[in-house]
Write a structure and sequence with these properties.
The protein is of the alpha/beta class. 41% of the residues lie in helices and 16% in strands. It is built from 17 helices and 13 strands. The chain has a seven-stranded parallel sheet, with helices on both faces. Strand 12, helix 14 and strand 13 form a beta-alpha-beta unit. Helix 10 packs across helix 15 and helix 13 crosses helix 16. The two termini are 16 Å apart. The relative contact order is 0.11.
């Protein structure tokens, strides 16, 4: 059992969005075998109630409160130099002080970093082995954003991509091992940072297939039958899930509603599109009408997934494996997703889920599934089987274990 310092940029609970799903399962994996000292931020006041749940998994927990407006002002100072805005956004004197005090009170054997922004605290401890879960190549994401926005945001995003890549390369050289979520992301980083390629590995995402599983007693949140003889036909629900304060998700649903939805509705007037996820901005709320429902936060996403006719993930800017896709597959629902997202998943396109790229691709795929319910159910069942076979969290996360120190019990005591 080792003493591990685990640094995460966002409280790893509840596991209700992609990065928190991964960081939470990594926390559980580490805590099952080691003592974990966790330093993290709370950036959503609603997460405060979950701090005790996280504390129960840790030997010690330090939580810093992150206020968006102050953090943005702090990060803007990076424009005076060549530092990435992301680093200053997550810079906190209290977090740095806690890290320094922790190593004076305990023998810490290694540092595990989740998200490159938290590596700045691990760099205070150069004497310790550092493992970094970059998840995705975030610098490439910012550079991709630049190509999808007008000036001045295109310039700002492009600058962030360049500055963050320089920092990612530095961190990866200092790390014992760096991890990415897919082989494609690992290969991309190897191309961008060839000096680090030999120290890069892949840890794929997983899904809790016991939690995300169909339940015959789970009630549908949708209108399933006409209320009376003269009522309208029952709706046919198409579902998108995801944190709606995340720009790629905003772009995905906006594009789907503006470019794809009208054609589908002409063929299927009873279709209703459900955008399910927390913190939808005004632009997403404005999409709501008689055929589009913006739910905001829901207590449980599983009823929406289980009773969806089709789940869509029309992401035009996406990196790595999307948890939202794995969760829908685990719920045995047919999924139509961006081809780049399908390529990141070890699954058969057309048999376990369906990849799409153009407007016509999405229209054809959704129409095919609606017209052939039996095929839709077969694809859903095959998708769940793929998750059960290939996407166990334990199987993937165990790849980190060989890089963690093996410490005798006597060496893991307080200093």
């Amino acid at each position: 059992m080792a003493n591990l310092l685990y640094l995460v940029h966002r409280l790893p609970y509840p596991p209700n969005k992609g990065d928190k799903v991964r960081s939470y399962h990594l926390l559980k994996h580490l805590a099952a075998r080691h003592q974990v000292f966790l330093g993290t931020f709370v950036d959503d006041p609603q997460d405060e109630v979950h701090v005790p749940t996280v504390r129960a998994l840790c030997a010690e927990l330090h939580v810093a409160r992150l206020h968006s407006r102050q953090a943005k002002l702090r990060s803007a100072l990076a424009l005076l130099g060549s530092q990435a805005l992301t680093l200053r956004y997550y810079r906190d004197a209290g977090m740095a002080q806690w890290v320094d005090q922790l190593v004076s009170r305990h023998v810490i054997d290694a540092v595990v970093v989740f998200s490159s922004a938290m590596a700045q605290y691990a760099q205070r401890l150069p004497q310790l082995p550092m493992l970094v879960d970059f998840v995705d190549v975030d610098s490439a994401k910012w550079s991709e954003y630049a190509g999808n926005h007008r000036w001045p945001m295109s310039w700002l995003y492009g600058r962030e991509g360049k500055c963050l890549l320089a920092y990612e390369r530095l961190v990866a050289m200092q790390a014992t091992r760096s991890f990415f979520v897919t082989e494609k992301e690992s290969a991309l980083f190897g191309q961008l940072a060839p000096e680090c390629a030999a120290k890069v590995d892949t840890i794929s995402n997983g899904v809790d297939a016991e939690f995300f599983s169909p339940d015959p007693d789970r009630r549908s949140p949708f209108q399933s039958a006409p209320a009376s003889a003269g009522a309208e036909a029952p709706e046919i629900p198409i579902v998108f899930t995801g944190a709606m304060d995340y720009w790629p998700n905003i772009d995905a649903v906006t594009w789907f509603v503006s470019d794809i939805w009208p054609t589908l509705r002409r063929r299927w007037p009873q279709l209703r599109f459900y955008i399910v996820g927390r913190s939808p901005p005004a632009s997403v709320q404005a999409l709501a009408d008689s055929s589009v429902v913006v739910t905001g936060t829901v207590p449980d996403v599983r009823p929406y997934l289980q009773h969806a006719s089709v789940v869509v993930a029309p992401l035009r800017v996406a990196r790595g494996i999307q948890n939202k896709i794995l969760e829908a597959m685990a719920m045995a629902r047919p999924v139509v997703a961006a081809r780049c997202c399908v390529a990141a998943i070890d699954a058969l396109d057309g048999r376990e889920l369906i990849g799409a790229e153009s407007v016509s691709d999405y229209v054809d795929a959704v129409t095919r599934l609606l017209e052939t319910p039996r095929e839709a159910n077969l694809i859903g069942a095959a998708g769940r089987q793929r998750v059960l076979t290939s996407y166990s969290w334990h199987a993937h996360l165990s790849r980190i274990d060989r890089f963690l120190p093996v410490v005798a019990p006597a060496a893991a005591t307080e200093a």
